[in-house]
Specification:
- It is built from 3 helices and 10 strands.
- The chain is 14% helix and 44% strand.
- It is mainly β.
- The chain has a 10-stranded antiparallel beta sheet with strand order 3-2-1-10-9-8-7-6-5-4.
- The chain has one domain.
Length: 227
């Protein structure tokens, strides 16, 4: 069985980009999010069951959950990936006390999730932000971000399952004075592309090269409301 770290050593050959995605100061704090899956596309048989389940149970339905942004050790605003993953999971599965989330705001690329019978290892390997770390400008009202990440799902039985994904998000926001009461202050369009990643776990030189054509695509519209 290939350990997540072994898989990641090979994966990181594709790596690059800044240390994290940085956001304007107004993002800091927690937000009530309304996220709607507006489109699902499947290309080939990869993830066919999950795609069909999303079409039947999630398409054109709104999921509500909390998302938070915090300051890292450099004083820059970043997404609280550990807490945010927990909030989304609870919105889908309900409150759980048997799931452990391990994430460090100053070492943000790795997130580990432990639950009964399954370990999930997530690592961001490449990212891009249209603003870089220059997000303090008052005139900045839009932002485009992109992250490539791997996920390793290990149930302890046989080879782990490996997924490669790219998340592209287009953000726009307005000042508090410009936001009508009861309306979202931040809007986002998000595209999640999943790629087939054949894995020979008996080979040390793991290869993740089939990233040109996504096997499935999920498109979301998101609205962030002040809590």
């Amino acid at each position: 069985m290939a350990a997540p770290e072994l898989i990641s050593d090979a994966w990181e050959k594709l790596g690059g980009g800044q240390a994290d995605i940085f956001y304007p100061d107004l993002f800091e704090g927690c937000w009530q999010v309304a996220s709607t899956l507006v489109d699902v596309q499947q290309k080939g048989e990869y993830d066919a069951d999950q795609v069909q389940q999303a079409i039947e149970n999630e398409l054109n339905k709104t999921l509500r959950y909390e998302q938070c942004f915090v300051r890292n050790g450099r004083g820059l605003v970043v997404a609280d990936r550990g807490l945010n993953t927990k909030k989304i999971t609870e919105a889908i599965l309900g409150a759980r006390d048997d799931i452990r989330y391990n994430w460090n705001v100053d070492d943000p690329n790795v997130l580990r999730i432990d639950l009964k019978g399954l370990k999930i290892f997530t690592r961001v390997t490449r990212r891009f932000s249209s603003a870089g770390s220059d997000v303090a400008s008052p005139s900045l009202r839009t932002l485009e971000t992109s992250e490539l990440f791997e996920q390793v799902f290990d149930n302890g039985l046989g080879n782990p399952r490996v997924k490669a994904s790219r998340l592209i998000t287009k953000w726009k926001w307005r000042t508090l004075d410009e936001t009508p009461e009861g309306q979202p202050r931040i809007l986002a369009n998000q595209v999640l592309s999943n790629y087939a990643t054949p894995l020979d776990s008996n080979t040390a030189d793991l290869s993740f090269t089939n990233l040109s054509e996504p096997a499935s695509i999920y498109k979301y519209k998101m609205a962030f409301f002040s809590v």
